[in-house]
Write a structure and sequence with these properties.
heterodimer; A: 542 residues; alpha/beta; six-stranded mixed sheet; 20 helices; globular; B: 325 residues; mainly alpha; MetI-like fold; 77% helix; transmembrane (chain B); cell membrane (chain B); Peptide/nickel transport system permease protein (chain B); MetI-like (chain B)
Chain lengths: 542, 325
């Protein structure tokens, strides 16, 4: 390979989709170049074909998808012209790949050491002893503690971040010239994400690798990219250096995406909500016990530990925390979806904790929830109309009236009233989440708990749903508890933010205060870990 | 020592379960109409009340139920399973005579069906959608749906009567008095038909289970990881897919293993195999309750032991089990 040949050249690549889908090509006329020592970010929303290009390079496309034209040149050799055996030789040796889900990307029944050693074994590198030595080196290199014993661990014993480190160690085993990272940090907590991004960047610099990094998050792009390719519906709409694309985006789609990136306006002040107190939580506690049979001691986790706050009508409280912080449990406790172990929940001044389920039922309609997963939270066998009218009818509203109301709600959340007779599978994720919100509103609630309600959505859809929530809140003067892992989103939509860490609220205040003068070390850590903090998307599209 | 602790816990529980089974069985038998005394008297041709009462007194059947239960429990705990009214030998001796034959049959069927089923399942999954796949799955469906006794009778008809390849019944050639290897070969020859008959249903189950499980695992992310590592296809199937796909098969195999003693009644009856199943069947017809209770006890012990062994093996097959408890 001479010095001028790029590491990877994708030339006019098109991959045809099976007939009968909404578009003809998964990716169409795709061209980009990646040089050694560069990080190229491919950005796009779900369905943009960004992962497809990565799979095409690795020859991992599902069997019903075949590249119909174009070339993928790796060090000048066309990967699409290679046989499966030739490709298998290149995989892991010249190009390796890490994936989105560290939970499922490792074989659960093989020790992590064996999985790393397998890369060298199948490529015929070294003998058992030298491979073993290399495994320990690699584990140490990616920053995992105590390689000698960790090597014998099964993946289920490792945290998500640790597993992703194992994946990286595996990818580095044969010092490939190129690394493909397909959304490697999307499933991780924000502080872990920062560590993994840092690791990838450090390794890339040290080894002079070319990295193809696929992501949907412009914050991540701002942190690590040298070059950026923006994809929409299988087409490249814009590409250039990171500075060009991030700060001077030209294509309207790119500008729209960047405008939708949640970014707290640090100088904005909000009028204090002056409604009367709707909900007051005092000293709430909830512990989980697991295991604990006849002979064994149970494992006890404090999920909610002495949490207190007040919430007024028309106010939005953001509950922010990483996985396992107890933020979802808090939401479930307030809705009495789970028992609590102590404390009071005063709804309109009346403690609902001691109420029996039957006594609480008349109140339930006032406290509603919007769930995280728009795909799992709607019954696939019921029409949207049925979903929206079930609640009111159960609460004694005549069907005809409920139906009229459901149609009104659909237009309120920005859906066509014809949606009434259709089934959930006919809608996209964002539309389903609108249905979820309409369902919650059907009962005229006074309090809405939104548990990660936008985190499964693409960034542009997320922005729309957030706007909708804020709009409705103003119109209907409801109180919202907004549970999220994303501090940026919380800062954008909430009046107050509560940061949860190991079951306790460690920081509480208006977003500006939390952002500019975080007092607790954990909050400071969270803020420092936000991807793309030095980059202001508002300025880019101003 | 988590495993040791687990073992002790489970053994204590196992003893409690077996005792519960013994008591329950004893009481259930009491509910059945008729008693051994009337059957014995009837067969002896002497039906008068006095003789029956005498028989009852002789076997302790005139005592209240709780007294009978208590003395039965005491006997069990001291290792005495009772005395067969009909065969005039201790029940324990009777069972020990029959047990090896049954274990040989069910054990062979177990191994036969497990190996054949997994191999066929892997082949079908590997060649998914091909003619071979369809052939294997059709075969599996047929044997899954066909009643065991019919398969047994047809096998005898075809292989013994028409083709004269295999002996239709019993465990050894009567009167041949083979010894050493000749005897082993003779028994193996007799073993073929009952083993295949008994094993076919489970073969079908394992085939279907393995295929479905393999196809599911093939779509999991870590298989893609393995491909991205450059692992050749054969090794992916062996090391990554099969290893994970075998877990549900293992679960079902433990169900079959639980039937090692009690699961062959029908097969033993059709092929006149001198095992526990036929002993139980005969004891039932003759109201030979001590034998029946003894067989139940042995069956229960085997089921409990197999479950224990399965749970122990699970910890080796799937390292995630230990913490998941």
């Amino acid at each position: 390979m001479n010095a001028t040949t790029p590491l990877l050249q994708v030339e006019n690549l098109s991959i045809e989709l099976p007939a009968g889908l909404d578009r003809k090509y998964a990716v169409e006329n795709l061209s980009y170049t990646l040089n050694a020592g560069e990080i190229l970010c491919v950005v796009g929303e779900s369905g943009s074909g960004k992962s497809m290009t990565a799979n095409a390079i690795m020859g991992l496309l599902p069997s019903y998808l075949k590249p119909s034209s174009g070339r993928i040149l790796l060090k000048g050799r066309d990967l699409l012209a290679m046989s499966e055996a030739e490709l298998a030789r290149e995989r892991g040796r010249t190009v390796s790949m890490i994936f989105q889900e560290p939970l499922s990307a490792l074989n659960p029944l093989m020790t992590v050491g064996d999985q790393i050693a397998e890369v060298m074994l199948v490529h015929g590198e070294g003998d058992a002893a030298s491979r073993e030595q290399r495994v320990l080196e690699l584990l140490d290199y990616v920053g995992l503690p105590d390689p000698a014993s960790l090597r014998h661990s099964y993946p289920f014993r490792l945290s998500g971040g640790q597993r992703q480190r194992v994946m990286i160690a595996m990818a580095l085993a044969l010092e490939p010239a190129m690394l493909i990272a397909d959304e490697p940090t999307t499933a991780l907590d924000v502080t872990t994400q920062a560590q993994i991004l840092d690791l990838i960047r450090r390794i890339q610099r040290a080894k002079g690798m070319g990295v193809l990094f696929i992501t949907h998050d412009f914050g991540v792009v701002a942190d690590i990219a040298d070059k950026v390719v923006v994809m929409e519906k299988g087409l490249v709409v814009e590409q250039g250096t990171a500075d060009e694309v991030l700060n001077r985006p030209k294509h309207p789609y790119t500008r729209r995406l960047i405008a939708a990136v949640p970014h707290p306006d640090e100088n904005a002040t909000r009028a204090d909500a002056d409604g009367d107190v709707l909900l007051e939580v005092r000293g709430l506690r909830k512990t989980y016990r697991s295991g604990g049979g006849l002979f064994t001691r149970p494992r006890i986790v404090k999920a909610v530990d002495d949490v207190s706050f007040t919430l007024r009508r028309g106010e939005t409280l953001g509950v922010v925390g990483e996985s396992g912080s107890g933020k979802s449990t808090l939401g479930r406790c307030i809705l009495k979806l789970t028992d609590v172990d102590g404390g009071q929940i005063l709804y309109r001044g009346k403690d609902i904790v001691p109420l029996s389920q039957a006594a609480f039922r008349p109140l339930r309609r006032h406290l509603q929830m919007v769930f995280q997963d728009p795909f799992a939270s709607l019954n696939p066998r019921q029409t949207i109309g049925r979903i929206l009218t079930d609640g009111p009818v159960a609460n004694g509203m005549p069907l005809a009236e409920a139906e009229k109301k459901a149609r009104e709600l659909l237009s309120l959340v920005g859906l066509d009233p014809s949606a009434y007779d259709r089934y959930p599978h006919e809608f996209s994720g964002g539309q389903r989440q609108r249905v979820g919100i309409a369902r919650a509103l059907a009962l005229d609630p006074e309090l809405l708990v939104a548990d990660e309600s936008v985190s499964a959505l693409d960034v542009s859809v997320q922005a729309q749903v957030l706007d909708l929530l804020q709009d409705l809140q103003k119109k209907l003067n409801i109180a919202v508890i907004f549970i999220t892992h994303d501090l940026r989103v919380a800062a954008e939509v909430c009046d107050k933010i509560a940061v949860m860490y190991r079951g306790a609220i460690v920081e509480f205040g208006p977003p500006g205060e939390v952002f500019n003068a975080p007092r607790h070390a954990y909050t400071q850590q969270l803020i420092a870990a936000i991807p793309g903090r030095h980059w202001n998307p508002r300025a880019a599209v101003a | 020592m988590k495993t040791l602790e687990f073992l002790i816990q489970r053994l204590v529980k196992a003893v409690i379960v077996v005792l519960g089974v013994v008591i329950l069985n004893f009481l259930l038998i009491q509910l059945a109409p008729g008693d051994p005394a009337s059957v014995l008297a009837g067969e002896a041709g002497a039906g008068d009340e006095q003789f029956i009462a005498q028989l009852r007194a002789q076997f302790g059947l005139d005592q209240p139920v709780y007294v009978q239960l208590w003395s039965y429990l005491q006997n069990i705990l001291s290792g005495d399973l009772g005395y067969s009214y009909r065969n005039q030998v201790p029940v324990a001796q009777l069972i020990m005579e029959r047990l090896p034959a049954t274990l040989l049959l069910t054990g062979s069927a177990f191994i036969f069906s497990l190996i054949l089923g997994v191999v066929l399942g892997v082949l079908a999954a590997y060649k998914r959608g091909s003619f071979g796949d369809s052939l294997i799955m059709t075969g599996a469906l047929i044997f899954y749906a066909t009643p065991l006794f019919w398969v047994a009778l047809m096998a005898v008809l075809v292989f013994s009567i028409h083709l004269d390849l295999l002996p239709p019944f019993d465990m050894e050639t009567i009167g041949a008095n083979y010894t050493g290897w000749a005897r082993v070969v003779d028994i193996a020859h007799h073993l073929v038909l009952p083993t295949v008959t008994l094993g076919l249903f489970f073969t079908a189950v394992y085939t279907r289970l393995t295929r479905a499980s393999m196809l599911e695992v093939m779509n999991l992310d870590f298989v893609k990881t393995a491909r991205a590592k450059g692992v050749p296809k054969g090794r992916i199937i062996r090391r990554h897919v099969l290893r994970n796909a075998i877990l549900p098969v293992f679960t079902f195999a433990s169900v079959q293993a639980g039937q090692l003693v009690g699961g062959a009644v029908l097969t033993e009856t059709v092929f006149a195999w001198p095992g526990i199943g036929r002993l139980m069947f005969d004891a039932l017809m003759q109201r030979d309750y001590p034998v029946l209770l003894g067989v139940f006890l042995v069956t229960a012990i085997v089921v409990v032991l197999v479950n224990l062994v399965t749970d122990l093996l699970y910890r080796f097959v799937d390292p995630r089990i230990e913490t998941a408890r």
